[in-house]
Amino acid sequence: MNPNSGKIKIGLVGLGNIGKTHVRYLSQMEQVELVGVCDVVKEKADKFAEENHTQAYYRHQDLLEQSGLDAVIIAVPHYDHPTVAIDAFARGIHVMCEKPIAVHLNDAQRMLDAYEEAKVRFPKLEFGLMFQERTYPFYRKIKEMLNEGVLGKLTRATWIHTEWFRSQAYYDSGDWRATWAGEGGGILTNQCPHTLDMYQWLFGIPSEITGHAHIGKYHNIEVEDEVTAYFEHENGMIGHLIVTTAELPGTNRLEIIGENGKLVLENGQLVLYKNPVSMLKYSFETTEGFRKMDSERIEIDIDKDVPTGHKVVTEKFVRRLLSGEGELIAEGPEGVGALTLANGIMLSSFRKSSVSVPVDADAFEAKLKELIQTSKYVKKAVSAPAADEDMSQSFSSSK
User: Domain containing 379 — which CATH number?
Assistant: First the structure.
C-alpha cells in the first residue's frame, strides 16, 4: 500500500479474455494503482501497458519482485494458478485468483499450504477468489431464504444450466483450450466453476458423487462438453446438475425442493411455491391417497439495481487490504468446494461408478497425468479471438 496515496498497488498476470475484463474496471477504481501487467506474449503486455500507462512484464516473477505491488490478480491458464499464487505468498503479496482455484485438488492443497505457511511471516496476508456470481442478487436472495429455513428440510436441488454455448471457433482460439495438458478439462474446469461453487455455497458438499461426462461429443476437443451429475447429501437431499456447451437455445433453471414448497429460478424470475403445511407431514397424516395440497405462488421481489461482478469482488478485496475489515466475496480456501465437485464428477465418470467425498485426489491427479501422456489430440487450427469480442456474453445470465 502506498501510504501517501491511500491506494493499493495491484499487478495483473494474464492478459487473455478475462484479463482484459480486469484491466477495464481496475482503471476505474480510485483506490487502486495498476503498477504492472504481465503476459508471456511480449506484444500483448506492451500494448496493455501502454494503453494503461503502466509497466509491462513478461515473467510473473519480475512483476512480483520489481513492480512494488501489494496484491496480484491471477488470470492465467488454470494450471499456472498455483505457481503464481505460491510465488506471491512467499513474498508476502496478497492474491486474488481467478476461478478455478486449481485444476486438481492436490494443487489446490499446495496453494493452501503455502498460504498458511506464508501467514506465519505475513499475518495480514489475504487470499481471495473471483467467484463474482456470489454477488448476483438472485443467488444472494436464495441463500438468504435457505438460511432462514423458508423451505424447511431440503429434499432436492436440480440445476439445468446449458447456457454455456461455445462454438468450435471458441475452442480453436487458443492452443491451450480444451486439452488435458493446457486446460485440464472442459466445461467443468472452464465454464462451470461458478455453477459448482454456487451449488456448494447454497447446499454444501455432497457425500457421494456420480458423474457422466461425455468427451468431445459435440466439438472437436478431447475434454468434456456435456455432463450430467447426481449428488447425495448426508441429510438426505439429492442434487442434479446438467451442463453442456452445445445447446442453443440453452436453459438456466434451478429448482430447489423442500418440505415447505419449491423455489424456481428461471428467466430472471424467482418464484416460491409455498405449501400450507410440510409435505412430509401431510404425506403421513392425510387419509386420502391422491389429493394434493394447493400451494401458493409467490413471486419474490429482487432488487436488481445493485452492483455485481468482478469489480465488486475486487472492491471488497481492496477494502479488506486498506482497512483490515469487511468480508471477501470468497476466501481462498472456499475454492476447494467447487473443485471437489469437478474432480469428483470426472473421477466418477472415468471409473463408471460413484465416488465418496472426500475425493481421492491422488487417483484423479494420476488419471489426469495419464490422459496428458497418452493424448493423441492435435488441433487442426488455432485462431485468435476477435479483439472486440464481448466477454460479458460468457457470464451467467442469472443476475
Answer: 3.30.360.10
Per-residue pLDDT of the chain (399 residues; tens, 9 = 90+): 544 458 999 999 999 989 999 999 998 999 999 999 999 999 999 999 999 999 999 999 999 999 999 999 999 999 999 999 999 999 999 999 999 999 999 999 999 999 999 999 999 999 999 999 999 999 999 999 999 999 999 999 999 999 999 999 999 987 788 999 999 999 999 999 999 999 999 999 999 999 999 999 999 999 999 999 999 999 999 999 999 999 999 999 999 999 999 999 999 999 999 999 999 999 999 888 888 999 999 999 999 999 999 999 999 999 999 999 999 999 999 999 999 999 999 999 999 999 999 999 999 999 999 999 999 988 775 555 544 455 555 555 555
Residues 144 and 113 placed together within one structural domain of the fold = no
Full domain range(s) for residue 96? 8-131+308-330
CA distances from 258 to 147, 234, 252 (A): 13, 15, 20
Helix/strand/coil for 397? coil
The C-alpha cell that represents 182 in the structure block: 493446457
Q: What are phi and psi of 360, to 5 degrees?
A: -70, 95
Crossing angle of helices 105-121 and 361-374, rounded to 10° = 120
Residues 57 and 191 in one domain: no
